């Protein structure tokens, strides 16, 4: 007969190990994972244990999410991270060493650039910035020590598209690892591996989880690049929160339906904005007016719900405030890919020549609201601008 404190510590343990066949994976909360035998522990001590030895080794929900993403991406393997920017940072760390040079497309997510300039530089890795619409012309930017090339296509603020197959062809010839942040298209609308990319990154924070309540990232690679990447993740003991992986897996189940809705509503709003007298340019890859529209048509299967626009030059910052602050259905906040419509606005600086230099680009995340209501809200907001 056990005493009370022992009962409290051990009660229900046997029942908790039951293998119940639910549709969704179990949610484990664990640092310690118990071994069945001392010989298993000895194997784990030597790094030879095949099973899960610790909470950072990948518990059920994380493994299930990573497996689902691997299949969706057509990758060899996938790792989940605590956020998209963590995923990006790990790729840059895993594939470079002191003295290397990396090429980064000019339109990447700001913190990607900050990580290169503010952190990688401390370890002797230098970065140069490619034109955002780079293609075959990239050879001239390559150096003897160029190790990695990072694309974001379309860029999530200014929406330029790179000629991915042309870039990956040069990368392969020169032994340079090609990486893409594929968050805008998701694996549903762009398959980077079919275009010769080595490493594909998702901020699962956006469309995959879809509800603006989770931060999560993924990195998927080809077979050739997996061992090097996995080794780095093993050393850092990378893991992702189980609850978030569970929600991300749930998000995947409806991703195709949500994405279609985002796509159609965003196109509807974009076409409507084209004809609005206050609007100067609408920047949406699926519109024929987009400079790389032909590349988008060639490589992508669809467009998502994020695009930009500029207003006519005569409007000042104060007019911009009147417009943005009067919107009722568009939240004013960062990130995107969720069910709620959002707006951001800002000016962007680029290393290379840039069509929107000094111009404010407004970015809309078109959510799941009724599209006519969204247009009415924009109409009333834009009416505050009228001179
Ligand atoms: C294109 C792109 N990549 C990566 C990230 C970073 O993702 P997270 O917010 O999950 O760190 C963002 C965030 O806005 C993004 O827009």
UniProtKB/TrEMBL annotation:
Substrates-to-products reaction catalysed: L,L-cystathionine + H2O = L-homocysteine + pyruvate + NH4(+); an S-substituted L-cysteine + H2O = a thiol + pyruvate + NH4(+)
Pfam families xref list: Cys_Met_Meta_PP (PF01053)
Superkingdom: Bacteria
GO molecular function, one term: cysteine-S-conjugate beta-lyase activity
Pathway terms, separated by semicolons: Amino-acid biosynthesis; L-methionine biosynthesis via de novo pathway; L-homocysteine from L-cystathionine: step 1/1
InterPro entries: Cys/Met-Metab_PyrdxlP-dep_enz, Cys_b_lyase_bac, Cys_met_metab_PP, PyrdxlP-dep_Trfase, PyrdxlP-dep_Trfase_major, PyrdxlP-dep_Trfase_small
Cofactor(s) listed in the protein's UniProt record: pyridoxal 5'-phosphate
Modification sites for N6-(pyridoxal phosphate)lysine: 206
Zinc-finger is among the record's keywords: no
GO-annotated biological processes: L-cysteine catabolic process to pyruvate; transsulfuration
Keywords: Lyase, Pyridoxal phosphate
Similarity comment text for this entry: Belongs to the trans-sulfuration enzymes family.
Protein name per its UniProtKB record: Cystathionine beta-lyase
Organism: Maridesulfovibrio ferrireducens
Taxonomic lineage from the root: Bacteria, Pseudomonadati, Thermodesulfobacteriota, Desulfovibrionia, Desulfovibrionales
């Amino acid at each position: 007969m056990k005493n009370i404190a022992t009962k409290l510590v051990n009660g229900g343990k046997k029942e908790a190990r039951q293998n119940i066949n639910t549709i969704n994976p179990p949610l484990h909360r664990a640092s310690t994972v118990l071994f069945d035998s001392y010989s298993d522990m000895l194997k784990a001590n030597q790094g030879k244990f095949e099973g899960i030895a610790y909470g950072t080794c990948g518990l059920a929900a994380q493994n299930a999410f990573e497996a689902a993403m691997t299949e969706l991406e057509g990758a060899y393997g996938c790792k989940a991270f605590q956020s998209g920017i963590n995923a990006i940072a790990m790729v840059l760390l895993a594939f470079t060493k002191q003295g290397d040079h990396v090429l980064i497309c000019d339109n990447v997510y700001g913190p990607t650039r900050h990580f290169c300039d503010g952190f990688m530089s401390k370890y002797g890795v230098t970065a140069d910035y490619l034109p955002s619409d780079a293609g075959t012309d990239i050879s001239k930017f390559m150096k003897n020590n160029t190790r990695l090339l990072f694309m974001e296509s379309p860029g999530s603020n200014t929406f330029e598209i790179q000629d991915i197959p042309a870039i990956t062809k040069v990368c392969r010839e020169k032994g340079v690892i090609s990486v893409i942040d594929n968050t805008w298209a998701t694996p549903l609308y762009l398959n980077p591996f079919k275009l010769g990319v080595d490493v594909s990154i998702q901020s699962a924070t956006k469309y995959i989880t879809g509800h603006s309540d989770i931060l999560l990232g993924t990195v998927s690679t080809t077979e050739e690049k997996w061992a090097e990447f996995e080794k780095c993740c093993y050393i850092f003991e990378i893991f992702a929160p189980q609850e978030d992986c569970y929600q991300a897996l749930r998000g995947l189940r409806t991703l195709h339906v949500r994405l279609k809705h985002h796509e159609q509503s965003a196109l509807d709003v974009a076409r409507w904005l084209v004809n609005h007298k206050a609007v100067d340019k609408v920047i949406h890859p699926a519109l024929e007016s987009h400079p790389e529209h032909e590349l988008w048509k060639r490589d992508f299967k669809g467009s998502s719900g994020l695009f930009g626009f500029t207003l006519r030059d005569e409007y000042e910052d104060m007019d911009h405030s009147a417009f943005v602050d009067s919107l009722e259905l568009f939240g004013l906040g960062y990130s995107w890919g969720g069910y709620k419509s959002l707006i951001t606005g800002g000016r962007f600086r680029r290393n290379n020549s840039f069509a929107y230099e000094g111009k404010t680009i407004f970015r809309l995340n078109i959510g799941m609201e009724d599209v006519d209501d969204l247009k009415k809200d924009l109409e009333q907001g834009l009416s505050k601008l009228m001179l």
